[in-house]
Amino acid sequence: MKLTYYGQSCVEFDFNGTKVLVDPFITYNPLASSINVADIRADYIFLSHGHQDHVADMATIQKQSDATVCAIVETAAWVRKQGVADDKVIEYNIGGTLKLPFGKVKMVYAVHTNSTPDGEYGGFPVGYVFFVDGKTIYFAGDTALTMEMKLLERFNIDLALLPIGGHYTMDAEDAVIAADFIKCKHIVGIHYDSFPPITIDKEATKSIFDAAGLELRLPKIGETITF
Q: Domain Metallo-beta-lactamase: where (predicted)?
């Protein structure tokens, strides 16, 4: 399995040939200028919530790849308003699990806010747990530290994508606690550096994780890692 990082919280999973894109925000991210959105093809797009920095390129990528978009009910309604056909939208809700050709995806709790770019209510913000070929990956989305994360320990998470930028989400110190709650030692940092309030000192941040006995990976934009 492979993961390609496109900046902010946008990642693409390659699950044995099935491309799963999460929170597509590339065009308006100055740090991702090296990425050509026209080259991205996805089979599925998952949205954690409707804020612009998580959905900006959804419609473009969906159209050029005929991807299926998965989101919480209210955010899914906004997706349809962008011209995505009903049969290419899967709406579900917190606690629900999708059974898809590449594996299962459970929608889980996140603590944040959620509105769509047009100012409408977007439902709850969420995270996702992917179950693929015996591996479990947790994409936390935009979230604060929450005790609800303790409920995820039972899934034996192999890799967790956690926000670390602070200001709008958890910071590194809280992400270390989150990693303890979910009992996962392998972390990929997301939601940092794109805007001044969430700029981090990478070496200092890594040292916080090192001190806790955790592996923190901060891939470069466009970098692919295998896990």
A: 7-191
Residue 163: partners with Cβ closer than 8 Å, 6 or more residues away: 9, 140, 141, 142, 143, 169, 170, 175, 189, 190, 191, 192
Give the structural domain span for 25: 2-226
Mean pLDDT of the chain: 98
Crossing angle for the helix pair 172-182 and 202-211, nearest 10 degrees? 30
The predicted model scores a pTM of: 0.98
Q: 121-176 pLDDT, tens per residue?
A: 999 999 999 999 999 999 999 999 999 999 999 999 999 999 999 999 999 999 99
The CATH number of residue 41's host domain is 3.60.15.10
Phi, psi (5° rounding) for residue 73? Answer: -50, -50
pLDDT tens readout for residues 185-219: 999 999 999 999 999 999 999 999 999 999 999 99
